[in-house]
Write the structure tokens for this entry.
Amino acid sequence: MNFPILSVITFLPFVAGILILLMPANRKNEIRAVALTAAVMDLLLTGWVYAQYLVNDLQGYQFIEKYTWLNIPPINIDLHFGVDGISAPLVLLTGVVMFTGVLISWGNDDPHVMAGIQDRPREFFAFLFLLAGGVLGVFVSLDLFMLFFFYEIAVFPMYLLIAIWGWVKTREYAAMKLTLYLFIGSVVALVGVLAMYWTQYQNTGILSFNMLEMENAGFSTAFQNIWFLPVFLGFAVLGGIWPFHNWSPDGHVAAPTAVSMFHAGVLMKLGAFAALRVGVMLLPEGAHTWSWLIMTFAGVAVVYGAFIAFVQTDMKYMIGFSSVSHMGLVVLGISTLNETGILGAGVQMVSHGIMTALFFAVTGMIYDRAHTRMIPELGGIAKVMPFATIGFIIGGLVSMGMPGFSGFVAEFPIFMGVWREQWLVAVIASISIVITAAYIMINIRKVFFSPMPEKLEGHISDVTVLDKVAIATLSLLMIVIGMFPAVIVPMVETGVKYIMNLLGGA
Amino acid sequence: MFTSMTFASILPEILILTIGLLVLIFEPFWKEDQKRNAGWLTAGGLLIAMLLSMVFGRPSEPTEVLGGMIRFDWLGFFLKMLFMFAAAATALLLMDHEQVGKRGEAYVMLLASLIGMNLMATSADLVMLYLSIETASIPMYILAGFLVGDERSTEAGFKYFLYGTLASTVMLYGFSLVFGFSGSTNLYVIASALTAGSISPLLAFGVVSLIVVGLGFKISIVPFHFWAPDVYQGAPTPVAGYLSTASKAAGFAVILRLFFIAFPEFTNTWTMILAVLAAISMTVGNLLALPQTNIKRLLAYSSISHAGYALIGVVAFSQFGAASVVFYMAAYIATNLLAFGLVMAFSRITGLEEITDYAGLSRRNPLMGLMMLAAFLSLAGMPPFGGFVAKVFVFAAGVQANYTWLVIVGIINSIIGVYYYLNVLKYVYLYRLPGEDEENHPIPLTQSYTIALVVLVIGVILLGTVFGPFFNWSDAGALNLF
């Protein structure tokens, strides 16, 4: 019996969250210390999984653990964990975002700076860890019921995190909107999941939520055509797919910094990942039937998101819509249903996760000090916050898809894959690259390098050491992926090969 | 013929009766400030009774005892344990109620009603069924109107009484027709006598409708729900909690046993009626919950909609469906008692029951804030709480039985539910008292509340995570219906 590393990774945040809740509320620094310890431990464990993943072994899933949770016919639920080439990098990504999110939320004793979480950090970290545990659970679950269970766990702490600690002006509205959108999406997918469960039983006589068995359930083409769209779109709502993306920028803007990082960094990947794993992998024929529609939605999201981001004056809205655009690229990659496209989508999920987390972290730092995020009201940040500026510029270069950074490694295969299926979509979608470059560069010039407005003069201090650690971690990762694609591409490829086997049959 | 089997089958009821008698004997001798100890006696006694029943009163093969009046099986046993757990929690919550806690007769009424509910879960005969329903109801009429001098409570008691007697009379008429057609009051004999051709479908529809009136009242589904909001609001809060959980679960126990065993030949008729009522209940309950400002009325409408969700498992008419209903009841009892217990603990200190009054609760008492979170998220059907698993199971049973349309209605309704449950949590966590000085307005919990609420919250979480054993028992019970 090997060390059950995936269960430890998944349940560690829950245990840490409960521990934190049991601590006295006024011991704020001890609470933060416990949170950081737990985050570091999870980061190390996820890193270990990443490092130990065997890229030459094409059996599909690794680190498999399976415990029977409930086996009373007709219900059979296993605690069944495992990672493939797509999910292993996402697990590491979650560890990274968790670690940097805790650092960013630490707080700052400077009275001019409203940084971090000063109000009730105990509840904040507890809910944040609940969220993290849910996210990790989805990435590693191979049992549909458990996937669903963790998926829902990841949804509801968002409401509290945004509503309690969010931006006063819009938090109530945004939190409720986000929760309702995500809940609607997930319950629509739930009906599809239940239909799959019973149909599998009719076809094969197997009663199981095990996704590995469901891959061979022999769903008829008609069945797949009916249920693919509810399942795929239901999950993809969380991935911010157009036209169901509306909750996402509002949520980003209202959320506190660490939650924005989580939200854009991992939560949206959760949607795309679940849509891929449940929608495409279990209903491949349905995917072939409907790929044109998904591709259209994603293509619109890519271009539309970029244009809307271009006209924003609030930095968080700008990044929020750029997320819609970049997540559109992920879905676009998935919709190609060819090896190159899905490979790009897998890398893009990681690249975009790190990039947006960095963007939101820096934006949060600026907002904490300048008390505004409006691009016209900002300026000259580079002089006082040089370290954060470098981080933002690196993020910007990734966002534009500059070679040498992770964005290029991800976007290039996506466009290649799309070209193979439908060259026109690739041409239209590539407009977004130009637009993205424009708004990122305009933003960098105005916010960081134009003269500082008078009323900000003297109010802005540099970021703290903890902030620098967070920025450095995220920036370095993007450069490493960009310079040495070999650290991630072969791994994602193993996952893609497995998916291609499933898709090939149709 | 009084065998050891007979004794085992009614052991819980004998023990409950003993507790009631003990309360009656001791209570007059206690001083005024000791009288709340009747609550400890009731709760502790019920705990011991549960343990004793689990050791000596476990059923083996389903048997009919006491002349076919009672069916001794796992379904009844598991439900009995649930009811006794609910009554014990209710007794703890009653203890510190200002007007009720020191009145020994309140606990005796609670126990008397509990005996009725226990028998409802095991009756295998129409006569016994009717008697047990009345035994369960009459003490509740009194308890609902227990706050003499409080107009709302008096109204609640009277309203509950009028609706209850009317509904049970209609149901009795239905029972008498069943007896007329089948020549027997035993559910199993009825099943073999009433074959498909023996009475016309229209007649079957009429008879089933009459019975549904009485049972629909017990489980408060639309259109027999009008009493629920007023009664829940007026009755002492722990009593309302008990009414909305154990009483409702007892109603479901009767529905399962009566329809599954006595009318399998007329499945199409009663599943159609119940499916329509389930859809209406969920929708009306949730829509009417939206504009509520009083938290007890909100919980009343939410309980109406929850009866609708649970009915999905009934109309599925399968072993899995029945098991999911029993599991739903277990999760719902723990969750809703927790919610009502928190409402009680809050209004005991503040005297307030409006949703807006809950502003700042999470700062006034962080533990209560977290418990509110667990209770309302469980009601909304979010993991890792019992409500999620229960809902997934009834929906799964519905899809399995090709009632996908009903499941879709249920899913749309659970989305509406999320909105108003989160709305309450918004006050608890987001809003603050006008002066923002919550630390000066703490809400202390007494010992009995702490015990009851912590046990309930652990139950809600266990049902949502380690649901294996609970579902196993539910399933063993459901097996007895086929």
Remarks:
- Chain B is about 75% helix and 0% strand.
- Residues 4-479 of chain B form one domain.
- The longest helix of chain B spans residues 151-182.
